[in-house]
Structure formats: structure tokens, C-alpha cells
Amino acid sequence: METNWEEQKIAQQENTKDQTNNATEAESQSTGPKNDSQLLGRPEPEMKRLLLFNKVVEKSLQKFIFDASFHRFARTFHPFYKKDRQLTENIHKQFIEDLQRTIQEDINKLIEEGELQCKLNELDKLEEKAKDSSEPAWRPSGVPEQDLCSFVMPYYLKQKAFLQQELKRIQKENAGLAQRVQAGREGLAQTEQRITAAVDEWKASISEFQAQASSFCPPDTFDV
Questions:
Q1: Which has more confidence, 38 or 46?
Q2: What average pLDDT is seen over the chain?
């Protein structure tokens, strides 16, 4: 009986705190800026999706924090709460603050690393441009294979055109290299012919010199 009475008392205190917090939040919203774009210092059309994302994250975070209410915290640690209520409230308050700050830091880090703000702004700009377009927007046909082909085929055709262009460029480079190789081979063949002709001339000169030398100095002249 005592435990049930304690839980009812905790629940009543928690409801009273929730009502006070909701009233304070409503008052701060009524006295604050009229739209979130003024807080961020950017025009509202460019921030539509980002504002919606921020509101969804804020609502989800509030719901998550509400689920970690003091009533549940005190019920889980009821012996400790029964022994020192004020300390339990302080621990729960610090726990909620640390939890909320940690979650918000992780969300901000994900937004920054994923460049979510830029991507959402790009979607807003694409939507604004699409309003002036008279062409019908793409809609799925209901057949996944056809939808996939309609999405993938332009990419593959673009890649095919790029590869064909690269192939022509490489073939042109190979043709130029083949011409230079052929010119080099012809140059080597001409050089080889000149060397062969020079060697033949040199051999002929040696033979002619030996013949003339033998006619001027017969071998019998040097016999003893």
C-alpha cells in the first residue's frame, strides 16, 4: 500500500511539473520569433525542408525525453528515491540535461557530416525551378523493372558515349604512335644501309691499298 501511495504521489508531482513546463514552453513560443527562418537569418523559401526537419527532430527529442520522465526514473530507483527525494530529483535533472545535450550533439554532427542543410536547400531550389516547368513530372509506372531501366539506362548510355569517345582518342593516339614507330624503323633501315655501304667502301679501299702495296714492293726484294 505504501509503495502504491508513493508512486501515485510521484505521478502527481510529475504531472504538475509537466503542466508547468508546457505552460512555460507555450509562453516562450508565443513571445518568440514568428518563424524559425528569422532565427537562422535566411529567407523562408530556402529553409522550408530544413525547418520541417528541425521541427521533426525537436518533436522526436521531446517525446524521447518525455519517455524518460521522473516518474519512471523514481519508480525504477524507488528505494533510492524513498531515501533521498531531493537528490533523486537532482540526479534525474542532470541526467535529462546530459542526455538531451548528447543527443543534440550527435544529431548536429550527423547533419554536418552529411551536409544535410545544403542538400535540403538544393531540394528546395529544385522544387522552385520545377514550378515553372510545363513538362509532366516523372511518376513510377508500377513495374520496378521498367522504372529501374528508365532511371539507369540514361546513365549507361552516357557512360557508353564517354567510353566510345575515349576509345576513339586512344585509337588516334595509337595510330600516331604506330606512324612514329614506322618512321623510326625506316630511319634505322636507312642507317643500316649507309653503314653497310661505308663498310663495303672501306673493304674495297683496303683491298686496293694491299694490291698497290704489293706492286710497289715485290716480296722477292726482301729475300736474303
A1: 46
A2: 76
**Residues ≥6 apart with Cβ < 8 Å to 7:** 71, 75, 78
pLDDT in tens, 161-205: 999 999 999 999 999 999 999 999 999 999 999 999 999 889 888
Residue 53 grid cell? 526537419
Q: How far apart are CA 77 and CA 6, in angstroms?
A: 12
Tell me how far apart the alpha carbons of residues 100 and 62 are, in angstroms, rounded to a whole number. 9
Compute the distance between CA of residue 80 and CA of residue 28 in angstroms, rounded to an integer: 35
Decide: 82 and 6 in contact? Cβ < 8 Å: yes
Dihedral angle of Cα 175, 178, 180, 181, to the nearest 10 degrees: 170
Count of positions (residues) in the chain:
224
CA 21 – CA 69 distance, rounded (Å): 13
| Radius of gyration for the alpha carbons in the chain, expressed in angstroms and rounded | 46
User: Of 97, 88, 50, whose CA–CA distance to 70 is shortest?
Assistant: 88
How far apart CA 20 and CA 33 sit, in angstroms, is 22
What pLDDT, in 10s, does the model give residues 129-155?
A: 777 777 777 777 888 888 888 888 888
CB of 45 closer than 8 Å to CB of 125: no
